[in-house]
Amino acid sequence: MSEKQLVAETLVAVIGEHLSSDEILNLLEKPKTAQHGDIAFPAFALAKHLRKAPQVIAGEIVEQLPQKAFEKIEVVGPYINFFLKKDSVSEEILHEILEKGADYGNQMTGEGRNVPIDMSSPNIAKPISMGHLRSTVIGNALANIMAKIGYQPIKINHLGDWGTQFGKLIVAYKKWGSEEAVRENPIQELLNLYVRFHNEAETQPELEDEARQWFKKLEDDDAEALTLWAWFREESLKEFMHIYDMLDVHFDSFNGEAFYNDKMDAIIEELKEKHLLVESKGAMVVDLEKYGLNPALIQKSDGATLYITRDLAAAEYRHKTYDFAQSLYVVGNEQSMHFKQLKAVLEEMGHEWAKDIHHIPFGLITQGGKKLSTRKGKIVLLEEVLNEAIASAKEQIAAKNPDLENKDEIAHQVGVGAVVFHDLKNDRLNNFDFNLEEVVRFEGETGPYVQYTHARACSILRKANFEIDLDAALALNDADSWEVIKLLQAFKEAVTKAAAQYEPSVIAKHAIQLAQAFNKYYAHVRILEDNEEKQARLSLVKAVTIVLAEDLRLLGLKAPENM
Ligand code: ARG
């Protein structure tokens, strides 16, 4: 039974005729300061039932409550504040964490059901943008979090490997490109060709027609078009894989847009059969007026299909293949309209599972307050950012811990981790500014700070030759350890909340709070002092390493034991 449940059960015995224990559970709050106890019940929730001042109600209830399960129960204003018994709670929590290890906080909500997560999904022949980085790291963290509560995540990289841009690219390559240049520096060269196409097309509009024809050829399986396309795709993918390796993010599927080419006729047939396709200026659309949305353009007048057509095919394919509990799409906020349309069309088609499709939008990364853009060939290369972060981590580690053995490996874990953590610590919908110096700091609310705290805790345990002893007394009573204990316990709620809101920042914030509370503990308490509480104190340190490492793992960061 959780502590909140204990409070709810205690209260329901007295006020059960007005509120159920679930209702009470929902009303319980966590006081902002420790002076107000651990859990508070707002007595004004009963004002309309009892028609008395909340202060009076609070006083009357407390008189009837059995006190023995708590250290004390106090009335402050309209609140009833419950103070938990620190020693029994700490005993229980530490015992549970030491026993379960990394499994602490695991839940079975998902019952093993599949959750495909559409994530990263960069576009072939273009660099991975900071936006794709966000999708990659948010998607990866959500996959870990969903797995933690018992779902089976399936990480899908829905590569942008189809579309009219390939017609443009083929035209540009045939006119101005060379095999050598593409081999040497694929993405940069393909991007140059793409940019050149747009510049030249401004004065030579016939280029656009040529591009359309080449894309049509591609859709009709023309051998030359297909060979070029496959080559561009392969070269691009090589560069993407390099970045995924740096991030240590791996995918279960690379079925991108092209994968659905042979699955689109069926979609168009289905839409026709269900009388959903209407003609509009030669094109085929699905009317979505009753959803307050613009019509979804499904097929152009020349027969070419569109982004949304491929997404419809992908949605049906995922439903058929994975029988999903939920289907997630981690894609920037700017595509919200697209996903609203996608869901609405699926609903119109009568798919009741359309309700299980969730767009998980996120905000922009800016630099100096400005949006980063790839349009004009000006790109912020993700790989460069990661390398700079690694170099900065390396410098700091060399200064802090010159004798560290595997410096390069740790610098990689810290540098990359810093970028990932910085991305995940803010609510995902917020825009945020990217400033490398701030990202790789070892102090403040950063990834390196959490990793460093974890490593410091590990080093205490090494110094003490600590070993887990589940039979030892683990009760702790002091205020500093209590702050840590409460956060160790709050981990479970953080996982539940992060999953329910698809919000990895909940975990990142928990990690920062726990690291801060632990550092305070470390500063105030002589952990290694020999007395009867030593094993309990060290067990607390051990529990902190377990939970911090788990926070970091869920976010996709490593937790080095030494740094
Ligand atoms: N390739 C797209 C882009 O970079 C993102 C794809 C998102 N996934 C999807 N199923 N539409 O904008």
From TrEMBL:
SUPFAM superfamilies: Anticodon-binding domain of a subclass of class I aminoacyl-tRNA synthetases (SSF47323), Arginyl-tRNA synthetase (ArgRS), N-terminal 'additional' domain (SSF55190), Nucleotidylyl transferase (SSF52374)
Pfam families registered for this protein in UniProt: Arg_tRNA_synt_N, DALR_1, tRNA-synt_1d
Compartments where found: Cytoplasm
Record-level GO cellular component terms: cytoplasm
Domain DALR anticodon binding: 450-563
Top-rank lineage group of the source organism: Bacteria
Enzyme class: ligase
Biological process according to GO: arginyl-tRNA aminoacylation
Keywords: Aminoacyl-tRNA synthetase, ATP-binding, Cytoplasm, Ligase, Nucleotide-binding, Protein biosynthesis
Domain named Arginyl tRNA synthetase N-terminal: residues: 5-84
HAMAP family: Arg_tRNA_synth
Family statement drawn from the similarity comment of this UniProt entry: Belongs to the class-I aminoacyl-tRNA synthetase family.
Record's protein name: Arginine--tRNA ligase
